[in-house]
From TrEMBL:
Transmembrane segments: none annotated. It comes from Chryseobacterium herbae. InterPro entries: 23S_rRNA-intervening_sequence, 23S_rRNA_IVS_sf. This is Four helix bundle protein.
Length: 120
């Protein structure tokens, strides 16, 4: 088991989620239960799955939940790009989110690979 508060990967994914919520504050009301809701769920899923995996006793289980978090990060990436293309958020707002998301994706990938070496 890991102390999630000490995991940079978890802290950065929490910060990303907060930034995503703030960026979506001005989305159109008719998207409140559509794309906006889906984006928020994806953003929350990243840190939540990292936390759930960190709370498991076996590294293999942690690896499994990191895979889910990794998939959610790509889902979030797709949704943020779509949001920009639909002019719901500007490129100026979206670029820092995508950059931070890219950093989180890299960390998840490296973390997964390190765990995978230990469980094989």
């Amino acid at each position: 088991m890991h102390n999630i508060k000490k995991l940079k990967i978890w802290n950065d994914s929490i910060d990303l989620c907060v930034d995503v919520y703030q960026a979506l504050a001005n989305m159109p009301n008719d998207e409140k239960y559509g794309l906006s809701s889906q984006i928020k769920r994806s953003a929350v899923s990243i840190s939540s799955n990292i936390a759930e995996g960190a709370g498991r006793e076996r590294e293999k289980e942690f690896y499994y939940f990191l895979n889910i978090a990794y998939g959610s990060s790509y889902e979030l990436q797709t949704q943020l790009i779509l949001c920009e293309k639909l002019n719901f958020i500007s490129e100026e707002v979206n670029k820092p989110l995508l950059d931070k998301l890219n950093d989180v994706q890299k960390m998840i990938y490296v973390f997964k690979e390190n765990i995978n070496k230990r469980i094989i």
